[in-house]
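Notes to self, FecR protein domain-containing protein:
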Amino acid sequence: MSFKFRSLFILLLFSGISSLLADDSAMLVYAEGEGFTLVRGGKSLYYDLYSQGAEGLLLEGGDLLLTEEDTWLEIQLGGSSTIIKISENTTFTLKSLQNEGGIFKVSYGRVRARVEKLTTDTPFWIEGGDTVAGVRGTDFGYDLFYDGSSPEKKNVSIYCFEGKVEVVRRLDTEEGDAYQADSDFAKGKDYTSTVLLGRNEMVSVSSEDKTAPLNKKKIELEVKEYWEINDFLYEGEEEDMEKMNFQDFHNDAELLRQGALYSTLTGAFIVGAGLTAYLAADDSSMGFGLTTVGSSLIAAGGYFYIRSLILP
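result:
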């Protein structure tokens, strides 16, 4: 095998591995405060941030996060620079993850998203009740709170710091009318109110009036001041690597199981590439090297899984 072909093969191989691990994934990259609860598959797991680190926790579509008072989380989507910041006392669901984007839901509280420019086939929606915010690349926030004097009354605010945010609200229609927004919010326009927010603009919606159209206004000072005080804190992979603690990983059953899955999948992928190099490309040295690396990763995955089973 020529050096040029070998280099290309290695580049393609590791590009494939990177894509396998980056797409449709999310990672908790920053956590501070008292603690939070992760609900996955009907099971709850509480993370006490005073006694255990949570950075590096891998998240899946369907996961629900509930933050305690004075607790702040930041989530990175896939291999992108998109960060979602979850405020204290917030209930937030990653309904689905797709192509470094996804569909998310705020049931209560405040979130802010700094979204990398997305491709046309990558959705990024945040919803709460009948109001959805969709973006391609921007910095925006979504608040949802219930009125203390009227628990059934829900107030939603969506605001844009940079870029553009399309906000769609479903209006009350006659009984029997069906409506469901698609990824471009292009269907059901007769039953919706839509606005496009620009820099320093916002909308506020009350559930009391389900027929009121959306009207944008200048972003409120309280919103700007709140996020100036509680701005994004995660600064990138270099800082994240400094925070990684192998001892925390080694003694966390959930992290060990996640590590076992990814290590085994990656190892199997590399072993397959090694066999391909040996059989198809007739390169025994590369085939042996890749197979050895892949086998080691599979063995590490087995160790992580066994370790997770024996932890108290």
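- Residues 27 and 58 are 5 Å apart (CA to CA).
- The first strand starts at residue 26 and ends at 32.
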